Amino acid sequence: MSRIALRAGLGVMALLIALVALVAWRNLRGEDPLDGPAAGRAGTSAGTSPGISAAAPATDRAAAAGADAARIERGRYLALAGNCAGCHLAPDGTPYAGGRGIDTPFGTVFAPNLTPHPERGIGRWTAGEFWRAMHNGRSRDGRLLYPAFPYPSYSLLTRDDSDALFAWLRTVPPADRWNATHALRFPYGTQAALAVWRALYFAPSRFETDPARSEGWNRGRYLVDGLGHCAACHSPRNTLGGVAVEFGGGLMPDASWYAPSLTRADEAGVAGWPREQIVGLLKHGVSARGTASGPMAEVVFRSTQHLTDADLNAIAEFLSALPQTGRTAQTARPAWRELLEKGGEIYREHCAGCHGTRGQGVAGIYPPLAGNRAVTLASPTNLIQMIRQGGFAPATAGNPRPFGMPPFYQVLNDEAIAAVASYVRQSWGNQAGVVTQIEVSKIR
After folding, report:
1. SS3 363
2. 3-class DSSP state for residue 120?
């Protein structure tokens, strides 16, 4: 490389570092690009309506009360759409009291108390301060929030939806529960580190409809990219926690499950599915094309089963229109004979009674393993977890008593789990990689 080219490269790098430093400095000072009158206005508390005084005619007060009730009900629905309780439900079951630890590669972040308790929760917050947290990722006192709270997705919410969600949270019973202190390794817990992360990966944004797309597609994108924050799990992350490829599939923050790609036909892409099958999976947790399990079963149970058919169809329309990358050619090396023989013995003893001797399953009860995308994922994480922990599809109105799989971690050791997983991944036409004992031990 010539000296001129080297100097040019160093100059570009220095410029990029300077730009990142400038944006990070502005983040620390609170100068968000979209901060302004609309973003920062205080708004109104639930239970009051702008422009309506206590001395107004009874008909006006009744209309205001009705508007408040409608807003609160919409906020309740939005909380379900965003699965807010998934993180903010306290370990003792108290709604929105926080306390759940969210493991990340950088340490543990604890979900805060969202109830209207004046000291422990958000009882002294205004609607404007709540909007700033959702839209700009800043707390009431201006501190930068950790992106384990998915404000990069929530930033797309409209101000009206943010206010409605805030109005609903104001109706939740106050919980006298202190927020836990995050346990993050240095320097990830510092405001400076968060400022740099935001400079690299975040800018407040607003949802813009695509006039070339249908109303359903736009509504589906608003729900998937915004409140649903689906990309937060279904995208791979780089070493600093930034999204590498949206919807490209990746390990959950604690690496315990793999969220499959929504853009790959051999993972979780639904481009070729009939619309009713996508809706059925989101509404009931089961369909002829698949069954929700692991963390996705919780999403269906707490969130998507409660959505309207119109919103579920909108989500299905958006997901089915995502660009697909096609199937990846399988180049897995065959397992050695002894491993397959041992795995086959374990399968016939513990698995064939439900899943069939040829992995065919039982329609509507036990899923087939032959040709099952969850079985043949490049990452064996989910298969290992299902063998170890077992699991049920979510209990929903359309499937109130789901059949489940018992856990085998007390029956099978890591070597046995690796053997039966390898057998399942390389039988009945399945062509996926061998599972090693080390892989099972690491997941455990």
Report:
1. coil
2. coil
